Amino acid sequence: MQRDKKTVMITTTGCVDCYVDVKILKDYFADIYHYDVTDNYSKADIIMILGCIATQYVEDDTRALIDYITTQKREDAELVVLGCISKVRPEFTPSQERTTLPLDEIHDLLQQGDLTNPVVPYSPDSFVEADFFQAKKERKLQAFQQYAESAPKPYRNRLAAVAYQKIFEIFRHYTDFMGTKISPCSGRSALLRISLGCKNYCSYCAIKRARGQVRSKPLPQLMDQVHQILAAGYTDIVLTGTNIGDYGKDLGLDLLDLLDRLVHLEAPLRIRMRNLHPKWVIANIDEFLKLLGSGKFLFVASPIQSGNDRILKLMNRGYGAEEFLAGMREIHRRCPAVILETHVIVGFPGETEAEFEDSLRIIDEEIFDHIVINRYTERPGTKAASFMDKNPEKVIWARYKRMLLKKLVSRPLRQLKALYRLNYGSY
Fold it and tell me: What pTM value is reported for the model?
């Protein structure tokens, strides 16, 4: 079949898994359709945006990028929105009547994962244009200004409000910087997606709707790809997936089977783990500790989401805060070199001030090198979207600010040490 030679640009506003999808699609259109791949939208005949839906804030970024490229691209260029946002927001779902792209092929390709793309270096490239980043910065500044205007009385006079806003902006820039540096990925990393989909039904999460049920990569194929990654010169392997704790459950395997194979490799290897569900940590803590004792693990990210058991039950997380924290304390005690990250959502529907204080106490724990704080935002089609007892945006912002400032004050030295181990530590 004769195909016209075209130029394609593929970009994303999403997570590390989206970087894998971008790489898959770039290789697919270059190898199968022989399209030229570009990072310059002004040269592209086809522009694909893989949009994120995880929170309202990243959805806003996706919508802003769509609007931006719509106004900047060539008039005859085709713009198609894919990714999680296209699965959750019907207005972005592409139809074959409106595009020349082989949508069925693309869907099948992304469903099966990176079967033909074993080595994915962590290099976001120019996923989002620099001037779009400037627009994103301006939106954040507007949010800060709105918050300053609704601040408590001592901050409401003009001079105090400006100072309050500037201080908060500085703290936020520091947080963004550290969030970028203390991440599961770096220039020495290669991404290895071990599975897609999730077996859990968290009440606030729309990603399950987008990614579906668990689909794991067979263990022999994974090990072949690990050897290719090491042969390519990468020392750090980032295990990634929607929820890597679910790896192998569709194949009669467990994540422990993969980790055991990796630990026993005779190779200089550092393992970074992201999206590890606390339920897996709790259920496998003894075996996990034995593997962590190998010294081959560098980074483990496991999101607690709340420090209060009632809120965790409303979230449908399936564990208690203390049983997870107990396991992480033991990991920190016995394997202090492993960098530990967790995530917390503030302002979940029904969260009281006392329940927020339970989450705030997570900051006092000496076990986490980095804590990602997210404000609750309603996601379409989720159970939490139907909860009636929602916190006002003003309350969510105030709690977010309190936790953010406490984190910044309590652990800058710890973060710097973690940053050094991540980026300069030897194997």
Answer: 0.85
